[in-house]
Amino acid sequence: MAIKSFQGKRDASQGKEDAQILVSDYMTKKLITFKAEDSLHHVINQLITNKISGAPVVNDKNELIGIISETDCIKHISESKYYNMPTDINNTVGNNMVTAVDTIDKDMNIFDAAFKFITTHRRRFPVVENGKLIGQLSQKDVLKAAITVKGNTWNG
Fold first, then answer.
1. Which of 4, 59, 88, 91 is surrounded by the fewest CB atoms within 10 Å?
2. Cα-only R_g, the chain
3. How far apart are CA 54 and CA 74, in angstroms?
4. Where along the chain do its domains lie?
């Protein structure tokens, strides 16, 4: 009697789904943050010095209250030049930040987060737990996760 098909001994891991790669595995935990009372001049200097395009804004309890970006700073500069007004160095983050901030959960799958980047056209998502800022996920963090994945369609 001949064996028509033999797959070999089954590995214990066969049939099990690979562990999910979570946002918490790749999010940045050491963040540069700003306060609402910080000046835009300070923000611009920090963005340039640290080579970042934006950062979360938190209160004294480390609760997320907004986000400030290069675009917000450029908008302020553009408006003041348009009206031929000098840029007010004392203008604050609180007057220019975005307060309706999309956040993501630390337990979200990194590839679900990637889809959220595509659909919302955001560059970063703060990660909040119990109202407190615990990290941030950027598009670059998703790319770092993607190169660690070894699947059937990925070379590596």
1. 4
2. 22
3. 12
4. 23-148
The residue assigned the tokens 């089954």 is: 10
CA gap 147, 72 in Å, rounded? 32
CA 52 to chain centre: 12
CATH code for the part of the protein at 23-148: 3.10.580.10
CB 46 within 8 A of CB 32: yes
DSSP H helices in 10-155? 23-26, 40-50, 70-82, 110-120, 139-148
In sign, the C-alpha dihedral spanning 100, 48, 24, 148 is: positive
Q: Hey, what amino acid is at 47? A: L
Kind of pairing, strands 124-129 and 132-138? Answer: antiparallel
Between 89 and 48, the more confident residue is 48
Long-range contacts of 42-48 (CB under 8 A, 24+ apart): 43/68, 43/73, 43/93, 44/73, 47/73
